[in-house]
Amino acid sequence: MCLGIPMQIEHIDGLIARCQARGIARDVNLMLMQGAPLSPGDFVMVHVGYAIERIDDQAARTAWETYDAMVAGDSDHA
User: Are 11 and 69 in contact (CB under 8 A)?
Assistant: First the structure.
């Protein structure tokens, strides 16, 4: 199973975006998203350090709620 982490773009410098999620900031490679219109404030799904998909804020919230439920062992949300 592969797991993508929803992160919000803080700023972009070329093909690198500084993104944050839950107080943790990381540099994310945008190479796979070339041609996609991305800007600070956008949410992206990050896998192994690469942004693989642009998502909306609701999808990011839903993903985090699902991950939280999985960690808590709540089978109603998994």
Answer: no
At 58, the pLDDT band (50, 70, 90 cuts) reads very high
From residue 77, give the alpha-carbon distance in Å to each of 5, 8, 43, 62: 17, 23, 22, 10
Q: Give the pLDDT confidence score for residue 76 in this predicted structure.
A: 59
What are the domain boundaries of the chain? 5-72
C-beta of residue 41 within 8 angstroms of C-beta of residue 8: yes
Question: Which top CATH class is 5-72?
Answer: mainly beta
- Amino acid type, 9: I
Identify whether the C-beta of residue 38 lies closer than 8 Å to the C-beta of residue 44: yes
Phi, psi (deg, nearest 5) at residue 44: -130, 150
